[in-house]
Structures are given as C-alpha cells and as structure tokens.
Amino acid sequence: MSSRAQAFEALEREFELIFNQFRRSAMANAAQVSEGMLPGAYKVLTTISRLGSATLSELTEILVTDKGQMSRTIRELDERGLIDRSPDPSDGRSIRISLSEFGATRLAVTRGEKEHELRDAMGRWTVEDIVRFTELLHALALGLTPRTP
Fold first, then answer.
1. Burial class (CB in 10 A: 0-12, 13-18, 19+), 11
2. What digits encode the pLDDT tens for the residues 36-91?
3. Among residues of the chain, what percentage have pLDDT more than 90?
4. Contact indicator for 63, 70 with CB cutoff of 8 Å
5. Which residues have C-beta within 8 Å of that of residue 52, sequence separation ≥ 6?
6. What is the distance between the alpha carbons of residues 115 and 134, in angstroms, rounded to a whole number?
7. 3-state SS of the chain: helix, strand, coil percent to 5?
C-alpha cells in the first residue's frame, strides 16, 4: 500500500473518531436541552440559533434533509416550547422559525457547560496551528486545494 493510501486510511480513522465523539456530544446536548430530544432536533435548534430565523425550506436545504422529516422535527421543537413561529414578512405564505425565549435559555445553559470542550482539547495548540487547521478544514469542506503556508 502506498504512503498516500496509508495517509488517507489514517485520516478516515481520525474522522471516524471525531464524528463518533461529535455524535456522543450531540446526544448529550440534546438530552440536556430537553429530555428525550434526538440529536437531529438539537442540530436543527442550533442551526436556527445560528441563523436567527429560517423557513422550513431554508432549514431543509441547509441541513440537506427531507422536507417531511424537517416538518416533524419542527413540530417536535414547537411542542417542547423551544421555537416560535411567525409569518415571513417577505413571503406571506411562509413561516419564519426562531428560538423561543425558553429555547434560547435551554440552549445557552447547555452550551455554557460544553463551551470549553474544544478549547480545552486544543489548549496547548498555538494560535497559528488553530488558524491553519481551520483553513485546512475549510478547504476540505469546499473541495479546494489548501494554500501553502
């Protein structure tokens, strides 16, 4: 096996480890926001928080999911009191979804307790290493060739 193939296998293993850690963290965060909440609903909630507000269609597109699944997730978040719905001022047929005050509070509590996990994990990294790692991840996410430092 070539050194390039070995490097890709090692990279895949590390991504698998990171994804598994992320799933565990998402499961714990979801349960902390609201008992019985699934990680997918937590992801939708954090996306709404990041965007400020969004329509069902926007969330479906951003999270690359099925409209029916997104509709069920929004209904669940609404039943838990975590979101508010309001008419979209730019399109009267659409509804904008935003965090409710309760949802914002629950998310802030959860994030506050988890806020330092990444910072702690990278605590001894130099700022330059963090910036470079971020640049490399961005290039990978967009399918670009990273610039040489």
1. exposed
2. 999 999 999 999 999 999 999 999 999 999 999 999 999 999 999 999 999 988 88
3. 76
4. yes
5. 98
6. 18
7. 65, 10, 20
Would you state the structure tokens that stand for residue 141, as one six-digit string?
A: 């996410």
CA distance 45 to 104: 9
Question: With 80 as the cut, is the pLDDT of residue 114 above it?
Answer: no
Among residues 16, 73, 66, the alpha carbon closest in space to that of 48 is found at 73
Query: Helix (H, G, I), strand (E, B), or coil: what is residue 52?
Result: coil
Q: How confident is the model at residue 112 (pLDDT cuts 50, 70, 90)?
A: confident
Contact 83, 35 (CB under 8 A): no
